[in-house]
UniProtKB/TrEMBL annotation:
InterPro entries: Reg_factor_effector_dom_sf (IPR011256), SOUL_heme-bd (IPR006917). Residues 1-29 are annotated as: Disordered. Belongs to the HEBP family. It comes from the Eukaryota. This is Heme-binding protein soul4. Residues 7-29 have a biased composition (Acidic residues). Pfam families: SOUL. One of its GO terms (molecular function) is heme binding. It comes from Seriola lalandi dorsalis.
Amino acid sequence: MALISLEDLDGLDDEQLDDDITDNPEPMDEDDRLLSHWQAVASTHQVSVPPDMTGPIQEMTRNSQQREPLPFAPVSRHEKMGEELYEERVYAAGHWACVTRGEDLYEQSISMGFMKLMRFICKENSAGKYLGMTVPVVSNIHMMEDGTTFKKDVQTSFFLPADFQTNPPQPHDSDITIVYREPIRVVTRTFLGTTTEETVTRQISLLWEILGATDDLCRDNYMVAVYENPGVPRRRNEIWFIRRNL
């Protein structure tokens, strides 16, 4: 998956961390071991994790079980022969922390964006404290005129926790903006595995095949919601189609 998720840190046992640092014969403390693990994961996305990410990684690790789900209201659920085809939901209005990156690869854009958001979450904000995390992390993709190619800029966002919705802390990083979004209604389908431009494009095509032609859904803008650890082989993701009207 493109996103270097906070859940990379879940379930890291000594054996897994040792596998990531076998090339380094020097003794390492726990902080170094965690950073080395993240660097190993990031290298598969052609992204490097700088040493100054050690603090945010520690903070995320300490608070890894405290995550708020994104609030939504279910609208409908559609199945065929016991298999869920898609679900429709309305997500609540609220403040999001957003960062846009335009790297060479989709994976790089999302990874670099999320590392910036991690720093914001972990005390690089006007409140001066750890803010907490919500899931899923959502990436917004815009399409070229051909309807199949991603534009370079990808926006990665997370919904601010409930305690900070009324008075959102401001980021120290000027690349991050706090945006108030109105409610959105989405048609969503779950898929398992990696999220690359190739796999996301395939999921977009598949959901269009299921839904058929309709003018009620946007074709130039999609969202990808990521819930789980990139180390999980069949991790949960969703593709979101956005309804033009609630």
